[in-house]
Amino acid sequence: MNKKLRQALKTIILAAVLYVIAICLPAGWEKNVFYALAYVVSGFAVIKKSLRNICYGDIFDENFLMMVATFGAIALGEYSEAVAVMLFFQIGEFFQSYAVNQSRKSIASLMDIRPDYANVYENGVLKKVSPEVVKIGDVIVVQTGERIPLDGVVIKGQSSLDTKALTGESLPRDVMMGDEVVSGCINLSGVLEIKTTKVFANSTVAKILDLVENASSKKANIENFITRFARYYTPIVVVAAAALAVLPPLLFSSQSFAEWVYRAITFLVISCPCALVISVPLSFFGGLGAASKAGVLVKGGNYLEALAHAETIVFDKTGTLTKGNFKLTQIVPCAGETQKELLRAAAYVECYSNHPIALSIKQAFKQKINHRDVSEVREIFGVGVSARVGTDEIAVGNHKIFAEYQLPAVKVEAAGSVVFVVKNQKYIGYLLIEDELKEDAISAVAALKNLGHKLVMLTGDRQEIGQNVARKFGLDAVYAELLPTEKVDKLEAILATKSAKGKVMFVGDGINDAPVLARSDVGVAMGAIGSDAALEAADVVIMTDEPSKILTAIKIAKKTLLIARENVVFAIGVKLLVLVLGAMGYASIWAAVFADVGVSVIAILNAVRSLYIKN
Questions:
Q1: Alpha-carbon gap, residue 520 to 336, rounded angstroms
Q2: Residue pLDDT, tens place only, 82-128
Q3: Which residues are the active-site residues?
Q4: Higher pLDDT, 48 or 515
Q5: What is residue 257's three-state secondary structure?
Q6: Which strands form 392-397's sheet, in the order they lie side by side?
Q7: How far apart are CA 501 and CA 306, in angstroms?
């Protein structure tokens, strides 16, 4: 509990003690003195704030309502009720402050990623300097237990990094020389020397901090509604209370001013909009915090609301549903060759290549390649590669290889990259290379489908490959062989088919999908740790490479929106009921205190649930 909250609690306890003493004393001036003391202790801050706001032109707020109501009660001689209103109002304010403090703590762990210093060598001595003064290309030293202050590349040492604050993942990430590292991670073991690639202002940690700090400024529709509602609601109830106090006694001589002023005071206490004004924004603030703890950064309450209304989810393929890592899945020999011989021939020809397909072939071969057996390596532009392996001339390539060697074409119907192999001018078989599916994506897509979402995939890959991936995932539609501009056009067509309240979500890897991320109702960037494009273009940033976090984000968004709506319905419902009863004379100030403070506390406690949404 911070200092401000402790002081508020002390004030409440002192006022409560004075109030209890006043109640216990017999009628007399001593009783009234203790009531006065209790009122001053509990109400001084409220009256001071109200008067200050009036000076600045902000008249109609909850402090003004409480001040007018209690002054009226004192004028009628209802000292006990005047103190009760102020005391319970302060209790409600305490719960409100405590809840906001807890909400801020939910994001505090993420905000702790800001580094305090960077270690650099000056004249051979290691010194601590501000991260802001380190330049691109400088070498920093990160010791065990320290936080990496800037993005860079490891040039010496190896270690394990705790990335939990960025990704929400508990498992550490191993790094060694040549690996890229991002700021905000904690070095768990060993000493790393890192050559910086960004200044602090452009580092991952700075971008994430900026994103989190500005997230609460982008309000959801329901938050904007509550803001507008409170702006018009409070002046209306003040005028209504004034009319309630004056008109009935003036119109009907049998009615007394004291009775109707009491009803008007009750009406004012009931009408205080605290429950709505704080609990709804608090619900969204808590939802943003719950998402950040799960490694999902949402740029504002409006995007959290959009996630909850996601109707169609559009996926990029490579890097989102698939790993972007090629894997050899089939070896089909012919002409008397064995699978082992066919794979060996292709691996030797590709031994000098770093192409992803060549790497997948060499990885599948698993044996050491004797490079002295390979000579006369030649690239056949647009076709493939040829080389002499021992005494044999071997070539690997795409379907154009048959025309290159004047051989009868062989057509293979396969949803992947087919590598044909020719040995001594003779076709000897083919290898099938496919992009690996993300295991996490299979269960995530199935769960999203069960929730009723329409699932679509956009890809620049060949039609048969796209169809094959879509079939394995059970997607509703796939559009393949799309250029980046064509992806935007296709997304426009999908947006045109959504329902009135439905939203279209696009999920990409954040590197080359910026136009589509920006055009969708809510753009989600996957695996975005260290990706500038994702942090800038996307509305939601998933810091890991797990599609299941999409499901997590949607669940948190839906639960947050449900909690906010519960608070709206509960607060308005109870207040309207007690307002009517108060105006009719059936509700006392004690009922009004419950309708104000009681409803506020219940709504705030309900809003705090959003901090602990299970993902």
A1: 54
A2: 888 788 778 777 876 776 666 555 555 555 667 889 999 888 888 99
A3: 316
A4: 48
A5: helix
A6: 322-333, 426-437, 417-423, 392-397, 384-389, 374-380
A7: 9
